[in-house]
Amino acid sequence: VNCPVQVSASFQQAVGQRVDRNIWHTYRYQASTPAPNVTISAVANAGPNGEKVCRLIVSGGPEKPGSGIDWRMGNLVTVDGLRGKKVRFSAKFRTDRQMDFNTSYIYAYFGIDNKIESNLVKRLSPDWAEKSVTIDVPMNAQIAEFWYRLALDKGTIKPGDGAIYFAPALEIID
Hints:
Elements: E1 6-7, H1 9-15, E2 25-29, E3 37-43, E4 53-59, E5 69-77, E6 86-95, E7 99-101, E8 105-109, E9 116-120, E10 123-124, E11 129-136, E12 144-153, E13 157-158, E14 162-173
Parallel strand pairs: 1-14
Antiparallel strand pairs: 2-5, 3-4, 4-14, 5-12, 6-11, 6-14, 7-10, 7-13, 8-9, 8-12
């Protein structure tokens, strides 16, 4: 999925690839409970500063806890130039109506012992809100992954239908 991401010049230089044009990968799994259906598109002039952002149209989101679901989208980048640096992954969100989540969060993963740094996304509204994680990238990092998880396992989305606007950013903190 091609969704925009704002990338600082220092982050871009460190990874040596066009992260702002990188493809976001989606992952959807369901067991006994259906995972939400999500249609993703880039929308011009919809961001907090008039920039292009990603829109997720959610339908069939679980309003009652079930089990065994996972829906997330992530941006994977080269880790070599990030080792030993402090990285900030942030995302601005807004929705077309108030939406509540119990297992939604943004997170960063570097391939070490299944350890992640995360920040919960509990409630979104039509007003922009920002969530972020700041991480010291370990020298033994294997990969650099930046994810937005919409629902996991017994996760709920109330209401189960709506539009989420997502404006992610990646930067190195000096």
